[in-house]
User: Fold Isoprenyl transferase from Taibaiella soli.
Amino acid sequence: MEVLQAIDRNKLPKHIAVIMDGNGRWAKERGEDRVYGHHEGVLSVREMVNTCAELGIPYLTLYAFSTENWNRPKEEVNALMELLVNTIRKEVDELKQNNVRMHVIGDFESLPEICQKELNEAKEITAMNTGLNLILALSYSSQWEITEAARKIAMDAVAGKIKPEDINDGLFHQYLNTAAFPDPELMIRTSGEHRISNFLLYQLAYAELYFSPVHWPAFRKQHLYEALLNYQQRERRFGKTSEQIQTNTPQHV
Ligand code: IPE
Ligand code: IPE
Ligand code: MG
Assistant:
């Protein structure tokens, strides 16, 4: 509770991105199968979504399945896809009630049809919601996303829709899967790994990175509060000097 009270509600990040890692190790430590860890991880997703909604954080992106995760054993991949379908089915009503709007980023067509159908329904059902935007990264990798963006820009240039000299950071953002969302300000990775693993490489340019030793299935709201407090104690300089930030010197453009 103390940590929550220390958090400045006016300085919360607008967008939190999470690499939910450590399900397998958490399960192994308990003598269980990796898939058990994935199931328990869903409870942490629930708590994360509810806590972000309570705090009024507008965007939450969860890395649920990477392009590289397709290379895992077939049984684990199948179990994860099944878990995805069942979880969406079970949770969609509550998401709707809690004013959560669901979005998906990643190579949607590569997902099994049943997943696509369930996700499309959930997106439709929650489309009018105005609270938390919950963005699931599925079959997602940043290098895939950036390569796709480059290909679409090239096609539009060839078709005469844009000129090469129009290509700038703003235009590039519009071709990314995340075009409708602001860039994350805080990125949390659980389970003690200090890497990005192909997640939002472009969008995380100025995000604050927070690494928690806690495995994802054990990650609770208290851990999120600690991450938020840590985030608020940092100075975000965006290339400027500390003095400029403190005296609010007008931006040089
Ligand atoms: C994260 O947990 C979930 C997914 C990548 C789908 P892991 O399954 O990577 O768990 P560890 O890292 O092997 O412990
Ligand atoms: C990153 O976790 C992907 C997701 C959390 C979905 P991984 O466990 O797949 O990442 P690496 O292999 O340890 O880098
Ligand atoms: Mg992992």
User: Anything to note?
Assistant: The longest strand covers residues 59-66. The chain has one domain: 12-232. The beta strands are 15-19, 59-66, 101-105, 133-140, 186-189, 208-211.
